[in-house]
């Protein structure tokens, strides 16, 4: 890779080609597709978790940008040589960490179309297709999930009822709904009372909620992470919620917002939506259902019951970029009252005023999100839905659940291990039974250092658990069997060394 050398300026040629020359775009585009196709063909050969040390790339790249243009061939060589070693391969079939970021040809090509058009769809007028396609695909997916009509756009396409919007991440979705709930409440009680507002969740709820509460100005002392237990499989107890609310009211505080989770990060626990909504509605609390991971599975009839009661919530979200084969970023958010978002998040400067907006016959999605600018995310979701259809999407999801059951069965047959939390979807929480947290941590670190598979962990109730999450698109049964073999091999070494010390 070149860099700027002042004494060579006279010999440097300037790139005269237009940066969007169609023929050159076609040539380089084919090269990129070929490069990525080869990458996916070979991805399982790479160490799943990057093995580099901090600061590795600084040692490989020049300190300044090149003054002269460089050919795509050279750049791709450097991607292979310098960038790929620093990647953790989320699309590897041996990736079982965190939650999946499942990809697909349709998701990738949809992203290409979105990026290629490069429209900035902040309002309807800025690109009508971007807005209208988004409202259509959000209704399509909402119907696949059997969401109530109150969450969907009305048949005339207006935002007069409920509706859906594509956010970047769950963090954004929660912040938007929390901000809408906050402003609704403050309009009733006075903005000077913001210090009295209280936000509720379980101690298993994603940290995105706490971050959103901080940004929205909620007093950190008024954030309630209510303890869960193994007796409720780490779901939030409605009785615990009620007693916490009553104590806050007794103290002069004002309940505002509840986040119920379907598929928590640590254990894929499911909060009981029906009774939680019953409690929350008594006190005028906005209920958001976060199904970032597990919501995708609810397009399958056998999993739909996990979101029963969503009709009583105010908002619902899932991440299509997690387990729905749509590339990052694509968070699907539905709300019953879009006007609550609009009132909290809209601005209307003169330079954005237009007849379409003033007619109130169109949606301006800039008013449903934090930022003004927005990407054409619906293009990739549209391609995923059309390219695979409901039947195939269900089949993909079921195959991952089947493989998780397979791994769960292998764990159950080996007396050295235990299933810590019952499996619900496609993630298995387990550990080496009767061993310290340190031993289990050592096992995870040893396995991951091998590069053969990648897993992550969680700690619930002081118990260290190994999370084995299946969801990478390329994963097959043979990869699950390989993972089990790797876990056994490293367990034997660690326990053998431990026995040697004891003896």
TrEMBL record:
One GO molecular-function entry: pyridoxal phosphate binding
CC per GO annotation: cytoplasm
CC cofactor: pyridoxal 5'-phosphate
EC number, UniProt record: 4.1.1.25
Biological processes, Gene Ontology terms: amino acid metabolic process; carboxylic acid metabolic process
Residues bearing the modification N6-(pyridoxal phosphate)lysine: 322
SUPFAM superfamilies: PLP-dependent transferases
Domain of life: Eukaryota
Pfam families, alphabetized: Pyridoxal_deC
Keyword vocabulary terms for this entry: Decarboxylase, Lyase, Pyridoxal phosphate
InterPro entries: Aromatic_deC, PyrdxlP-dep_de-COase, PyrdxlP-dep_Trfase, PyrdxlP-dep_Trfase_major, PyrdxlP-dep_Trfase_small, Pyridoxal-P_BS
PANTHER family per the UniProt record, alphabetical: GROUP II PYRIDOXAL-5-PHOSPHATE DECARBOXYLASE, TYROSINE DECARBOXYLASE
Subunit structure: Homodimer.
Protein name, per record: tyrosine decarboxylase
Organism: Macleaya cordata
Lineage of origin: Eukaryota, Viridiplantae, Streptophyta, Embryophyta, Tracheophyta
């Amino acid at each position: 890779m070149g860099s700027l050398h002042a004494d060579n300026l006279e010999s440097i040629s300037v790139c005269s080609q237009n940066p969007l020359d169609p023929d050159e775009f076609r040539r380089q585009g084919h090269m990129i597709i070929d490069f990525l196709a080869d990458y996916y063909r070979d991805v399982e050969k790479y160490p799943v978790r990057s093995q580099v040390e901090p600061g590795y790339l600084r040692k490989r790249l020049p300190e300044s940008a090149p003054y002269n243009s460089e050919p795509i061939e050279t750049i791709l060589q450097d991607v292979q040589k310098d960038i790929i070693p620093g990647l953790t391969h989320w699309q590897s079939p041996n990736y079982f960490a965190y939650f999946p970021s499942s990809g697909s040809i349709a998701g990738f090509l949809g992203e290409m179309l979105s990026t290629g058009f490069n429209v900035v769809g902040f309002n309807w007028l800025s690109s009508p297709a971007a807005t209208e396609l988004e409202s259509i695909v959000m209704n399509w997916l909402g119907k696949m999930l059997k969401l109530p009509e109150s969450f969907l756009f009305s048949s005339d396409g207006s935002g007069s009822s409920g509706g859906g919007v594509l956010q970047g991440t769950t963090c954004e979705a929660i912040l938007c709904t929390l901000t809408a709930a906050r402003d609704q409440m403050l309009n009733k009680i006075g903005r000077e009372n913001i210090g009295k507002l209280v936000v509720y969740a379980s101690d298993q709820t994603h940290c995105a909620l706490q971050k959103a509460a901080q940004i929205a100005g909620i007093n950190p002392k008024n954030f309630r992470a209510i303890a869960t237990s193994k007796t409720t499989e780490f779901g939030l107890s409605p009785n615990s919620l009620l007693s916490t609310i009553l104590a806050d009211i007794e103290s002069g505080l004002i309940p505002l917002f509840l986040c119920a989770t379907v598929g928590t990060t640590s254990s894929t626990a499911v909060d009981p939506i029906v009774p939680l909504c019953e409690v929350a509605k008594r006190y005028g609390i906005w209920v958001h259902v976060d199904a970032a991971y597990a919501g995708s599975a609810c397009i399958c009839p056998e999993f739909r019951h996990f979101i029963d009661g969503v009709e009583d919530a105010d908002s619902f979200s899932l991440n299509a970029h997690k387990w729905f084969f749509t590339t990052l970023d694509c968070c699907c958010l539905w709300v019953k009252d879009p006007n609550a978002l609009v009132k909290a998040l809209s601005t209307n400067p003169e330079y954005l005023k237009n007849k379409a907006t003033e007619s109130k016959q169109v949606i301006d999605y800039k008013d449903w999100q934090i930022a003004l600018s927005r990407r054409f995310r619906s293009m990739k979701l549209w391609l995923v839905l059309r390219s695979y259809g409901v039947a195939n999407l269900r089949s993909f999801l079921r195959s991952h659940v089947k493989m998780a059951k397979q791994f769960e069965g292998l764990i159950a047959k080996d007396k050295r291990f235990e299933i810590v939390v019952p499996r619900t979807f496609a993630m298995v929480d387990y550990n080496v039974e009767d061993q310290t947290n340190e031993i289990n941590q050592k096992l995870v670190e040893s396995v991951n250092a091998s590069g053969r598979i990648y897993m992550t962990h969680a700690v619930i109730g002081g118990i260290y658990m190994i999370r084995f999450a299946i969801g990478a698109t390329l994963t097959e049964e043979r990869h699950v069997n390989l993972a089990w073999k790797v876990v056994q091999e490293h367990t034997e070494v660690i326990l053998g060394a431990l026995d040697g010390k004891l003896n």
